[in-house]
Amino acid sequence: MSTPSSTIPSLAYKTSGTISGVPEFKAESTLVGDPSLKSETSSVIEKLPWDGYLEADIPDKTQGKVMRDLRHLVFTIYHRLFGVVFASNLAILVALLVYGVNSQRLGLITVANIFVAILMRQDYVVNTFFYVFTSVPPSWPLWFRLLMARVYHLGGIHSGAAVSGTVWLAALAGQGTKELAHGEQISVATVAITWIILVFLVGIILFALPAFRVKSHDTFERIHRFMGWTATALVVLLTNDWRGDASLGYALVHSAPMWLMFIITASLALPWSRLRKVPVRAVILSDHAVRLFVNYKVFGFHPRPVPGSFSRISLDPLHEWHAFANVPVPGTDEFSLIVSQAGDWTTELIRNPPKEIWFRGTPVAGVLRVNIMFRRVVFVATGSGIGPIAPCLFEKRQPSRLLWTGANIFEDVWRGSYTRVHGRPDMVKLTYKMVQDFNAEAVVVISNEPLTRKLVYGLMSRGVPAFGAIWDS
Questions:
Q1: What is the DSSP string of 127-166?
Q2: What global pTM score does this model have?
Q3: Helices H, strands E: what count in the chain?
């Protein structure tokens, strides 16, 4: 069936029945489809949620454009955290350079910043932050819950500490060179290693810039991994050189850099100590989507993945990893990952599904996990973005509504009814109407980057709390 191009695409409606392959979408659940699918479902409500949305009023964006953009685009929580970390380090660096400092003190502060940067990306640390921040009960004031829900912006601390550590390392290299030239107690090897590490860290930062990271993500990952490992090994050599004539045992007890490097090394090694090649069961959903089923007990002491978490998978564990949302299968020991076409790697995986695949580390909480902090939530998904959201709906932590749009949506994700519809709705206006009708406290978006940014900005600038991925890694 086809419709005029002015018609909105498949949208949300409520059903008390079921769709083939979609368990337990009942009563309060919200499903996606075209009105023409009434014959495929039972008890479709007469008045559809999007009826009249084009005629409905939507408030103007608050504040002027400059102030609005500064608040929602420039001074995001991520950028504020980066700014606080970097500005604090810069102020301390200036003070120390003014009042005088030696290379060992600079080295300690350098290692401390690298320590913070690495821990902010450690799976268990991230999960701990999410656990603490999302434990805020829904009865607490909304403004406080909204602030805590920005926990997924913690990457700002990672990048702030990483850049700060590189600046400190540059100061250390300069100070070390100066001390060596003056014949002070510092070895040529220490200065040489410091400069080599600086080159590696500058390279990592340059390749991590969004412009390059988006275009060549696999290259960014490899450089980040291999240069990072090499730099870490060199820092270990550097801290060992700093102990001078002291015994290794004495240094381990009294040297802060040695302890920090011990924790850093353990932190980097821990996810790889849980590297597993596990059997998977693949179900082809369409020519651009596949669902991989995994028994979580094969991970040994791995916990059962929770809704709103993701796992990293690979076919070549040394070279590339890809993160996909976990979809726990109710009543079983299985969970699944829906892989949709988004590049050469995913295309090959869909065409030739593997029988085994590598998993690393532990399931990690992501932006979707913040939904548990709110009393009523509107979820917005496009295409196979329904995969990550589905377990949040199945969990039934709170009343929720789902807006799911896209062409081929049923074929993309579940084998069931399918109708192709042309056209694209005004997603900001449609979502705003759903929020008002449902009296939702927050909106969570899982979509592509352009639409996610547009929708979050469009809602936030109108006073509607909205959360979506920030593509910071």
A1: HHHHHHHTTS-TTS-HHHHHHHGGGGGTHHHHHHHHHHHH
A2: 0.83
A3: 16, 14
